[in-house]
Amino acid sequence: MEQTSSRRVYANDWMTVREDGIRRVDGTRGIYGVVDKPTYALVIPRDDDGRLHLVEQYRYPVGGRRWEFPAGTAPDRADVDPAELAVRELVEETGLTAARMTLLGTLDCAPGMSSQRGHVYLATGLTAGPPRREHSEQDMRAAWFAPAELAAMVGRGEFTDAQSLAAWTLLTLHDARA
């Protein structure tokens, strides 16, 4: 597939939406709407008892609160090293600092419509401190969950964030290899 044109349709501090003209392998033309967002880091904080730390906040596009693992991007679409971003997001959203950050894998957020890619880290050797949340995260709550509790939340439809579910899968594979 070849890009034949591109135009920015919309932009703000967090994303850009563009429309690309394309030419397919057979020569036919088409368009793609693409949401460009910066790389994000997602962190799975796990304590010595195996509990997982989640955050919950209101997610406007779906009209409700959602539990998820701490995650985020750099301000103003800045390009920041994912490992550095993971450390920052963990402290910002939970107040936790980690003695160890282990890269579990990479996720493509929604490759049919977005260029965004995420890096998933397991945070261990945790020390508690105060969160340093952004103004937009003022409604955020946080709590620890045993893996069995998280599995039950998935079964009840209470843990539905696709990136967090994919990250949990990477953690499960990591633990199976260990």
In short:
Helices cover 21% and strands 42% of the residues.
Give the secondary structure arrangement, pairings included.
Layout: E1 2-11, E2 16-23, E3 29-36, E4 40-45, E5 52-59, E6 64-68, E7 71-72, H1 82-94, E8 97-108, E9 117-127, E10 141-145, H2 147-155, H3 162-177
Parallel strand pairs: 4-9
Antiparallel strand pairs: 1-2, 2-3, 4-7, 5-6, 5-10, 8-9
Unreliable residue stretches:
none
In total, the number of strands is: 10
Strand order of the main beta sheet, please?
Answer: 7-4-9-8
Helical stretch tally:
3
The assigned structural class equals alpha+beta
Mean pLDDT: 94
Radius of gyration: 18 Å
**Main beta sheet, described?**
4 strands, mixed
Terminal Cα span: 40 Å
Helix content: 10-25%
What coarse outline follows from CA principal-axis ratios? Answer: globular
Helix/strand order, N-terminal first? EEEEEEEHEEEHH
Beta-strand percentage? 35-45%
What does this structure look like?
By secondary structure, the chain is α+β, with helices and mostly antiparallel strands. It has helices at residues 82-94, 147-155, 162-177, and strands at residues 2-11, 16-23, 29-36, 40-45, 52-59, 64-68, 71-72, 97-108, 117-127, 141-145. The strands form 3 sheets. A 4-stranded mixed β-sheet has the order 7-4-9-8, with helices on both faces. The longest helix has 16 residues, at 162-177. The mean pLDDT is 94.
